[in-house]
Design goal:
The protein has 364 residues and is α/β, with parallel strands linked by helices. The chain starts with a strand and ends in a 5-residue tail after the last helix.
């Protein structure tokens, strides 16, 4: 198979670097274009990230010699790449305008940024959950009079820790009424240089700006449906979130308490819940997408798992790892969930979105 040429916007930042490292030797995609802020433009990529390359020992050789372009101008990308991954670090308004400018030029945008997550005709994808939301792209292109260009985004990293197990239960006929979620989020989620070491060593920070609102609301769009050319949010579940930063490098953990929207005699047993999770597979597994985990939900039976250091790389860093399922004295059940925030929750999740789009013919 001839590889598709792709670009990375925000290529010098932490998420941009992760994209470049993860795309090294990808079977479908090849990085041929990198763009970043004007201060990096004109430099070779290896020089632009000198002394601040964070992902492994070496920069991929074929990207190291690329000249960094100014991400604010989409025109140099024409003819250099079929689509771009957006890892831009700017204000939301600036990102929204710039992603639209690339789409206007006929360059699809697969975004890691939050700017377009609430745009009604932009799908916010977790491919195992809402691949059907790709249907809204036709209306998006029609609305903007775009030919080949469009925008698709991924959701916030923290809710990907527990959204698949919740969705799997709903699909199995066990609707969730409400949830209380407490996240313990890794420092890499704050980017680089991130949270000062004085704040993280021997400490937990019980606040991450904007994170609780995202955790409580984005799930409703993900679980929604396409109707009338836009995505209608689901009515539930109702979520109450507390989001904290903990001294872990990679791997977001969540403690989840949930209540089913079912009569008492219809609620699943713990054994039934675990079976639902272990049996769960979806579109990425059926299509054998390269970055998809063979088993998207992995249940650990040990009483002290999951743990970030031991479990974050499960399924190539793309699986949701769950443990400690037990009865809850306030709601119905409670459990602990873990996912890799800079793989499933960021760049590799974006790559999986692109693989889904490619497999569905959106880059043809």
């Amino acid at each position: 198979m001839e590889k598709i040429n792709v670009g990375v916007l925000g290529a010098t930042g932490m998420v941009g670097q992760r994209y470049i490292k993860l795309l090294e030797n990808h079977p479908w995609f090849k990085v041929t274009y990198v763009a970043a802020s004007p201060r990096s433009a004109g430099k070779l990529y290896k020089d632009a990230v000198a002394n601040r390359w964070l992902i492994g020992a070496d920069i991929p050789a074929d990207v190291a010699e690329l000249t960094v372009q100014d991400a604010n101008d989409p025109k140099p990308a024409l003819g250099k790449c079929r689509f771009v991954f957006s890892a831009l670090e700017m204000s939301k308004d600036e990102i929204k305008a710039l992603e639209a400018a690339y789409a206007e030029e006929g360059i699809p945008v697969v975004s890691n940024a939050s700017a377009n997550r609430w745009t009604e005709d932009v799908p916010m994808l977790i491919p195992e959950i809402n691949s059907a939301h790709l249907d809204v792209i036709a209306e998006q292109k029609k609305h903007h009079n775009w030919d080949k260009g469009f925008i698709a985004v991924k959701p916030n990293c923290s809710l990907q820790t527990y959204m698949m197990p919740v969705y799997a239960l709903q699909q199995a006929g066990y609707p969730v009424k409400r949830m209380v979620v407490t996240t313990l989020q890794a420092t890499s989620g704050a980017g680089y240089p991130g949270v000062p070491s004085f704040d993280m060593i021997d400490n937990i920070v019980p606040y991450i700006g904007g994170e609780e609102e995202k955790t409580e609301k984005e799930c409703l769009k993900i679980l929604g449906k396409v109707s009338g050319g836009k995505i209608e949010n689901a009515a539930g579940p109702l979520v109450s979130a507390t989001c904290t930063r903990v001294p872990v490098i990679d791997g977001h953990t969540a403690s989840v308490n949930l209540e089913f929207d079912l009569p008492e005699d219809k609620k699943p047993s713990l054994e039934q819940i675990i079976k639902v999770w272990e049996d769960f597979k979806s579109v990425p597994q059926e299509m054998n997408l390269p970055s998809a985990p063979a088993q998207p939900i992995v249940y650990r039976y040990e009483e002290n798992r999951p743990q970030p250091r031991r479990d974050r790389e499960t399924g190539k860093g793309m699986a949701c790892v769950i443990g400690r399922l037990r009865k809850c004295s306030v709601f119905d059940v409670k459990f602990v969930a873990l996912s890799h925030n800079t793989k499933r929750g960021a760049a590799l999740g974006g790559i999986l979105n692109a693989e889904l789009l490619k497999a569905k013919g959106f880059f043809d």
